[in-house]
Design goal:
Blueprint lengths: L5 H13 L1 H9 L13 H8 L4 H10 L3 E6 L14 H10 L4 E7 L5 H4 L8 H16 L6 E5 L5 H10 L6 E3 L11 H12 L5 H11 L11 H12 L14 H19 L3 H4 L1 H4 L2 H13 L6 H11 L6 H10 L14 H7 L1 H11 L15 H9 L24 E6 L2 E6 L9 E9 L2 H9 L7 E5 L4 H4 L7 H10 L4 E5 L11 E7 L16 E5 L4 E4 L24 H6 L15
Helix pairs in contact: 1-17, 5-12, 7-8, 8-16, 9-10, 9-23, 11-15, 19-20
Organism: Limnobacter litoralis
Family: Belongs to the IlvD/Edd family.
Keywords: 4Fe-4S, Carbohydrate metabolism, Gluconate utilization, Iron, Iron-sulfur, Lyase, Metal-binding
Length: 592
């Protein structure tokens, strides 16, 4: 095991120093350990165990055998979560093998960004993460559990579950994922048909057939977007079976993973070493840094430049985009999975997957293999023992060793200048497209951009600016509907880029995009003072986001009134209280 890279060690030490007070405050807020059920009133305990047979009631109330709470985000609208329908019964069966009882503590909402893209519901998407965190707390609040099992996969759901569980960090937890669907229509072919449809060269029936061929069964979507980035990062944190993220649903491999995970958390809940395995100890500066290295090495989703800042804050750590930029600057890009390549996560898993990626990053000194996992062993020990991870990749077009990277850095950059600070993902952007100086067009909605495209208004190099898309404005929706039209413009030979205080999908890639611009327009951010024709310069490789326009005497453009409700008005108070994107776009913490 190589020593940690000096830059990564410096970043970790800086985070620890910055977070000393907040980390101590978090740890001091937790109970010393699970509350003894003997302290519960008889009526309380009877309510909790009413559905159990007498033998199980005896185990819980008298023998005080470990009792595990399950928090599930199951619904059958999300293909990734449909397999969870059977998980509570499977988990109960495997727990019984060790004399342990389980109970579904509660459910959380789980929405699909793929369904809400470009629609009003997307304005609830980012806030759903904090709803999930709160609902996980509600389920766990009954205080009868010795440990927990978290069932959730997709974009906001896994981070939300982890944030909520950290409020109960005195207990051990494990995630059990569901795995990806089998490969269907290739992601590049799907993207091609989307672009043709945006130009009117493919009809709705053709587009629908393509989409249905891509999304065709249970399991996560197969591109490497936010959901699958979640899964890789949880593997890297040791909070789920390291290397098991992309095992297929309903496979023997998946079944073994479920059994091993249940047995591991049952042992942790009963262990004399419970304190070493409790969530508050496992989610520390080392595991957080490991997860962020995994994000960069895999070319993962920019959404985690928001989500994992909030996860870290829930554990008492203060992380910012400067930290992420430095991590990315020294982390080699070792995977090419769509949108950063042509293959999908199934090909990545077949090539060696997260287990091999972990192994080579540990060998290279980029991941700390001594980090403890929920399985009672370190990451390095898991790879050698539980998984016997491959010592080489079987497909160097998809997954490479640290000595042979696709590029020397991780591909997520911090851009800054007189327009503020923003995040830019360049791992899928060709070198020739990583810088632009061009006049801008300013819009307040992605549909306005699409309408301008359909009117053939983009005939020269352009920086498309979309304002009033930040968390305070409208909940910071993803603007994935822009991906096909901007891709068409780029394919026509125009230099094109996007600048926005909103988000882009984890599936976005080839178009240069400065996103999450902070401060946002609703906070009097300079981005809101731009006007059509202002010259904007973006240099991704040098971290520049600049305008030549004099903005001092300009006001922020007024946000247009929006019609309709569909639940959005219920989040008005959250929009007023939410922090900026670099602080995690959350309302859960009073201060950072």
């Amino acid at each position: 095991m190589s020593p940690l890279h000096p830059t990564l060690l410096k970043v970790r030490q800086r985070i620890e120093k910055r977070s000393a007070a907040s980390r101590a405050q978090y740890l001091n807020s937790l109970p010393a350990g699970p509350s003894p059920r003997t302290s519960m009133g008889c009526a309380n305990l009877a309510h909790a165990t009413a559905v159990f047979p007498t033998a199980d009631k005896f185990k819980i109330a008298v023998e005080k055998a470990p009792h595990l709470g399950i928090v599930t985000a199951y619904n059958d609208m999300l293909s990734a979560h449909q397999p969870f329908a059977m998980y509570p019964a499977k988990i109960a069966g495997y727990a019984q093998e060790l004399g342990v009882t389980t109970q579904v503590a509660g459910g959380t909402p789980a929405m699909c960004d793929g369904i809400t893209q470009g629609r009003e519901g997307m304005e609830l998407s980012l806030f759903s993460r904090d709803v999930i965190a709160l609902s996980a707390c509600v389920g766990l609040s009954h205080d009868v559990f010795d440990g927990g099992i978290l069932l959730g996969v997709c974009d906001k759901i896994a981070p939300g579950l982890l944030i909520g569980a950290l409020a109960f960090g005195h207990l051990p937890f494990v995630f059990i994922p569901a795995g990806p669907m089998s490969s269907g229509l290739s992601n590049p072919e799907k993207a091609k048909i989307r672009q043709l449809a945006s130009e009117g060269k493919a009809d709705r029936a053709t587009l629908l057939r393509a989409e249905e061929a891509a999304y065709h069964s249970s399991g996560t979507c197969t591109f490497y977007g936010t959901a699958n980035s979640n899964q890789l990062m949880l593997d890297f944190m040791g909070l789920q079976y390291p290397g098991g993220a992309f095992c297929a649903p309903n496979s023997p491999e998946r079944e073994r993973l479920i059994q091993h995970s249940v047995h591991a958390i049952a042992r942790a809940a009963a262990s004399d070493h419970r304190n070493a395995l409790k969530l508050a100890e496992l989610v520390n500066s080392t595991s957080l840094l490991n997860a962020l290295v995994g994000l960069m090495a895999s070319g993962g989703s920019t959404n985690h430049t928001i989500h994992w800042i909030t996860v870290a804050r829930a554990a008492g750590y203060l992380i910012d985009w400067t930290d992420l930029d430095e991590i990315s600057s020294v982390t080699p890009l070792l995977t090419r999975v769509y949108p950063n390549g042509t293959e999908d996560v199934n090909a990545f898993h077949a090539a060696g997957g997260t287990a091999y990626l972990l192994r080579t990053l540990i060998e290279g000194g980029f991941v700390d293999g001594s980090a403890m996992t929920s399985f009672g062993c370190s990451l390095g020990e898991c790879l050698d023992g539980l998984l016997q991870a491959s010592s080489q990749s079987s497909n160097l077009d998809v997954l490479r060793p640290h000595t042979q990277p696709f590029q020397s850095d991780g591909g997520i950059r911090l851009l800054q200048g007189n327009l503020g600070r923003s995040v830019c993902k360049v791992s899928a952007v060709k070198q020739v497209n990583r810088s632009i100086t061009a006049p801008c067009r300013v819009f307040s909605d992605q549909h306005e951009v699409i309408e301008a495209f359909e009117r053939d208004e983009f005939t020269q190099d352009v920086v498309v600016v979309v304002i009033h898309q930040g968390p305070k404005a409208n909940g910071m929706p993803e603007l994935h509907k822009l991906t096909p039209v901007l891709g068409v413009l780029q394919d026509r030979g125009l230099a094109v880029a996007l600048v926005t205080d909103g988000r882009m999908s984890g599936a976005s890639g080839k178009v240069l995009a400065a996103i999450h611009v902070s401060p946002e327009a609703m906070q009097d951010g300079p981005i809101g003072k731009l006007r059509d024709g202002d010259l904007i310069r973006i240099e991704a490789d040098h971290g520049v986001l600049q305008t030549d326009a004099d903005l001092k005497n300009r006001n922020v453009q007024t946000m247009p009134a929006r019609s309709g409700n569909l639940g959005r008005s219920y989040f008005n108070a959250w929009r007023r209280a939410v922090s900026g994107a670099e602080q995690g776009a959350t309302h859960l913490f009073e201060e950072f």
